[in-house]
Design brief:
Number of helices: 17
Largest sheet: 5 strands, mixed
Shape: globular
CATH topology of the largest domain: D-Maltodextrin-Binding Protein, domain 2
Radius of gyration: 20 Å
Helix content: 25-40%
Strand content: 15-25%
Number of domains: 2
Number of strands: 14
CATH architecture of the largest domain: 3-Layer(aba) Sandwich
Strand order of the largest sheet: 2-1-3-10-4
Structural class: alpha/beta
CATH class of the largest domain: Alpha Beta
Distance between the termini: 48 Å
CATH superfamily of the largest domain: Periplasmic binding protein-like II
C-alpha cells in the first residue's frame, strides 16, 4: 500500500488530553515515527473533553486522542448535534482508576463493598466525578457502583470534571471520589487526599481505553492520511513496549511542560504497573496500562464499541436501542486499520469481536447487545 510522499509532509493536527495514555502520540512525534509515513503530527493539548470534541467536530483538529464512549455519543447525538465519526484504532488498554477521598477512607470506605455499606449507614449525598457524560470513565464508574448495589443516578450525584482538576476538587471537598485516567489517581495518593478503590482493569479486564478518533468526513476524504497516522502510532506503541529503557524515557518525556507537566514518578509508577492504593496495599499489576501487545491492544474491535452503546442505553442516555452492530461497523474503521497493520507488519486478530467477564461476573461478547443492555437490574428508563 502506498505511503504518502515523504518529500511533502502532510501536517496533521491531533488533539490530546494530558494523560499517561496519550504516550503513543507523544512518542510518535518525539521519535519521528510520523515522518516515516509522510506526515507531521502537530499536537494540541486540550483542557477538557468537551473542548476537544468541539474542535474535532468543527475541523479545528484533524484527529484526536479521545474517549471511546465520547465518539459513540457524538455518532448518536447524545447531548450534542449528531455527527458521523470514525474510530481509527485503540491507543491504550487498562490503566484508569476509581479514587475515593481520604475522608471516606478514614470512615472505612476503601473499596466497593465497604463504600456500599458506608452509604447505607450514612445516607448523605455522595458526589462522584467522571470526565465526560458518555465517556469511558462515566460508564466504568457507573458499572462499578451498580455492581455493588449503588444506583449512580439515584443514590449518588455525578459531576463532569476535567481530568487535571480531579485532585484539586477532591482536596477541596467538592467531590467524594472520581474515575479518571492516570496520573491523576496516583497524584491523589501522592498528595494524601485519596485512595484507589479499584483499578479499571479490575472492573473490566483488558478494557479499551482512548482511541484515535476523527470525523467520518475526514476519514472518507483522506484515507491515506488516516492509514499513515495509524501506522505511525502502531510503530510508536510497539517502541514504547520494546524495552524498560523505552518506558523510562517515555515517562520522562510525558512529564515535560508540553505534555502532562507533572512529576515523573506519578507517571512512571503505574506505567510500570506498580500500584499503591494509599491505604497500605501495594502490588504489581499484570494488567497495567498497555499500548501495543503485538497489536492486540490497538485493533478496533466491534464488540468494544458496542459495549459503550449498551451502557449508554442502560443509563438512559439512549432512549431506544440503536443498531448496535451497524453503528459499530460504521464507526470502527477496520478497513483503514487493516491497511496500516499491513504497512507495519502488525498482526490482526482472528475476529472483530472479543469477550470479557466484568467485575460482576457477567460476560460480554457482543452477541446479544440488546439483551445485555436490558438484563441489568439497574436501568434508568
Amino acid at each position: 500500500m502506498a505511503v504518502i510522499n515523504s518529500n511533502q509532509l502532510r501536517t496533521v493536527r491531533i488533539g490530546f488530553m494530558p494523560l499517561t495514555d496519550c504516550a503513543s502520540l507523544v512518542m510518535a512525534t518525539e521519535c519521528g515515527f510520523d515522518r516515516q509515513y509522510g506526515i507531521r503530527i502537530v499536537l494540541s493539548r486540550e483542557t477538557s473533553w468537551a473542548n476537544l470534541r468541539d474542535k474535532l467536530g468543527s475541523g479545528a483538529l484533524d484527529a484526536a486522542h479521545v474517549l471511546y464512549g465520547l465518539m459513540y455519543g457524538v455518532q448518536l447525538g447524545i447531548g450534542c448535534q449528531r455527527q458521523a465519526m470514525a474510530v481509527l484504532m485503540n491507543l491504550s488498554r487498562n490503566g484508569q482508576a476509581v479514587t475515593l477521598s481520604r475522608a471516606l477512607a478514614e470512615q472505612g470506605a476503601l473499596d466497593g463493598p465497604s463504600l456500599a455499606q458506608h452509604m447505607r449507614d450514612c445516607p448523605r449525598s455522595t458526589t462522584f466525578a467522571h470526565t465526560f457524560p458518555t465517556g469511558n470513565h462515566a460508564m466504568l464508574l457507573y458499572y462499578w457502583l451498580a455492581a455493588h448495589g449503588i444506583d449512580p443516578l439515584r443514590q449518588a450525584r455525578a459531576l463532569t470534571v476535567p481530568p487535571a482538576q480531579m485532585v484539586g476538587s477532591l482536596r477541596a471537598g467538592m467531590i467524594d471520589g472520581f474515575c479518571a485516567g492516570e496520573p491523576w489517581g496516583q497524584r491523589a495518593i501522592d498528595e494524601g487526599v485519596g485512595v484507589t478503590a479499584v483499578s479499571s482493569q479490575q472492573i473490566w479486564p483488558d478494557h479499551p481505553g482512548k482511541v484515535l478518533g476523527t470525523t467520518a468526513a475526514f476519514a472518507a476524504s483522506e484515507p491515506a492520511t488516516c492509514r499513515a497516522m495509524i501506522a505511525a502510532l502502531l510503530d510508536a506503541s510497539r517502541w514504547i513496549e520494546a524495552s524498560q529503557a523505552n518506558k523510562e524515557h517515555t515517562a520522562t518525556v510525558l512529564a515535560g511542560t508540553a505534555y502532562l507537566n507533572t512529576g515523573r514518578q506519578a507517571i512512571a509508577a503505574r506505567l510500570f504497573g506498580q500500584y499503591d492504593n494509599g491505604a497500605g496495599a501495594r502490588w504489581t499489576d499484570a494488567r497495567a496500562l498497555r499500548f501495543h501487545g503485538d497489536g492486540e491492544v490497538n485493533f478496533p474491535y466491534l464488540s468494544d464499541g458496542m459495549w459503550f452503546m449498551t451502557q449508554q442505553r442502560r443509563w438512559g442516555l439512549l432512549r431506544e436501542d440503536p443498531d448496535y452492530l451497524g453503528q459499530a461497523r460504521a464507526v470502527n474503521r477496520i478497513d483503514l486499520y487493516t491497511g496500516a497493520a499491513e504497512m507495519t507488519g502488525t498482526q490482526l486478530p482472528a475476529s472483530s469481536m472479543r469477550s470479557s467477564t466484568l467485575i460482576d461476573g457477567v460476560r460480554w461478547d457482543g452477541g446479544d447487545p440488546r439483551g445485555y443492555a436490558g438484563s441489568f437490574p439497574i436501568l434508568d428508563q
